[in-house]
What we know:
Elements: H1 5-30, H2 42-54, H3 65-90, H4 101-131, H5 147-172, H6 182-192, H7 199-220, H8 228-238, H9 268-276, H10 282-286, H11 288-291, H12 298-317, E1 327-328, E2 341-342, H13 343-347, H14 354-358, H15 365-378, H16 385-397, E3 427-430, H17 432-437, H18 439-454, E4 459-460, H19 471-475, H20 479-496, E5 500-503, H21 506-513, E6 524-527, H22 528-538, E7 553-555, H23 569-579, E8 584-585, H24 613-622, E9 628-631, H25 634-646, E10 653-656, H26 657-663
Helix pairs in contact: 1-7, 1-9, 2-8, 3-4, 4-5, 5-6, 5-7, 8-9, 9-12, 18-26, 22-23, 24-25
Amino acid sequence: MSPNPKLFAVLLLLSASAFVIGCYRRFSLVALGRPEDRLDAPGTRFSRMLRLAFGQQRVLGKPFGMNHFVIFWSFIILAAANAEFLVSGLAPQVSLAALPVPLQHALLFLFDLVSMAALVCVLVAFARRLFFAEPSLSSDYVKARSPEAFLILSLIALLMLAYFGLHAARIAAGIEDPAAMPVSAFIAANLVAPLAIDPATLAVWSWWLHALALLSFLAYLPQSKHMHILTAIPNCFLAGLERPNTQPREEFTRGGRFGAGRVDEFTWKDLFDSFSCTECGRCQDACPAAGTGKSLNPRSVIHALKTNLLANGASLRAGDAPPQPLIAASETGAGAGEGSAAENAIWACTTCGACMSVCPVLIEHMPKIVKMRRHLVQMKASFPEELATFFENVEARSNPWGIAPTERTKWHANLQVRPFEQGKTEYLLYVGCAGAYDARQKQVTVALAAILDAAGVSWGTLGKDERCCGDSLRRLGNEYVFDRTARDNVSLLAERGVKKIVTQCPHCFSTLKNDYRQYGMDLDVMHHSELIAGLLASGQLELKQRVADLGRLLFHDSCYLGRHNDVYDAPRQALTAATGSAPAEFARNAERSFCCGAGGGRMWQEEQEGERINLNRVKEALQQEPDTICVSCPYCLTMMEDGLKDLQGGSVRVKDLAEVVVEGLRA
């Protein structure tokens, strides 16, 4: 029953050579990327890797995830069985039989049951792709019934069947103890013996079938999309430790290149991400652009990066210009090849972070899109025409509408608002562009001012000296103007001695709190929901009445408050304290919340493709039959109100959290 060790050694050498060469060809391409430190805090990284890679935490978030969980752990456990198989193929005297009998039987029992579980899960995966494939399994390059998918599943199934055939033959021949291998013993008793199959012949055929399937899988793995088997676990270790609430700074030098218009302008980690994608489609399912018929699909962006790297690697190594463009000038990317991302897809991103929050292997989609935007804006001046006006207005007058800075203080024309004074004022109220200029959002600013006064909070403003924080500039890729804006703002805040800031806009909140740290400004920044919730909880803010005239109150999470900064409880606590009951929830809420459509600079662009994102969200809201939709963001307020108008939402109102709470101050 023993194989021919010399023949097997030759086949193993060929397979191992193909594996090593394939891995080298791909991993060496990663070295084309720019340097980046991803080895800090190893303890934190290791514990997260255990939870997400080995614990499959995000994979188990979907029903089919349990099937993948079983296959994953089957591979981990059966790696020991396959290692023993390879070693014994070269040296038959080295096998599990050399172990103490109790340990040998325990391992055989485990391998037998795990092999059966893996076979069942592979059959379920076959059925899923054939009969129950969800939309995320299909795209322009991913097909539920792709030959590659069935090839991989078939190889796994052959490994399991060959394993059972080999051990059933050994049991039938009296070589192995049937008590240690229940599944193989069942096959031996119910197939091998009744069908009078020669155990020696079955053992030889099964051994070689197992060998060929295993060696074929080993040789093919680096060439296939299933290379993520090798990269997914380290990618979880190497992923960023912080939430995706900021972007790396750029150094502006004469003659430099900015952003990423070629694959070698990304970091090595960006390129490693592209080999780690499992093509599961979770990012596609979560993406508001993909979900409303836009050309953007986060999975396609990562796939384009990988395909472009493979196509251009040789040229880039030789110092030549890459023949395949990374960014396609056409709207669809047609004609540019599979390894290109279409420009309109790049501009469709709302930077909501939903793709990153669901990715099982922690791929960082959004930062790559921002890097490509930087290239388009700063190197090619290629961007949607409406952004030209936006960029000019912010650069010239430090607000998106180009309104005179002297108009910033008109929101408090009938109020006594004090300027911020160092040493005398505790909080700077950073009003923000929307809070100062937008007619509807001014009402929120007034409500917030009334709340701060009622609680006895010491606060002031910068008045007409306040400038745009630059959030949309940075997310749209205009890093140069953002850099100047941030430097000016940091200088102003330092000069005024500002230490604590409260703002009603999650975009201002996130930028001041996270982006400005890159400029040496470490501020105590609070979103108004956090401050109000704290004031209510401590008793410093006492309401005169419960707010009871809002009817059914439905709360919408802001992406930049929630997913980007993990502020979920504060707005709900404030609303509960003000109304006496917890707000109703969207079907998609908290970390799974669906974007309003205005983030990432989309507030200043038109939607030319598919369904408007805000309409999708408002439709979801109307299914809950609310009387009031509560938000905590100026962008969300605008998008919700516009959506209700378009959908004729009847008497449904939209209110900011501050507007709800201030009602409780009225006698």
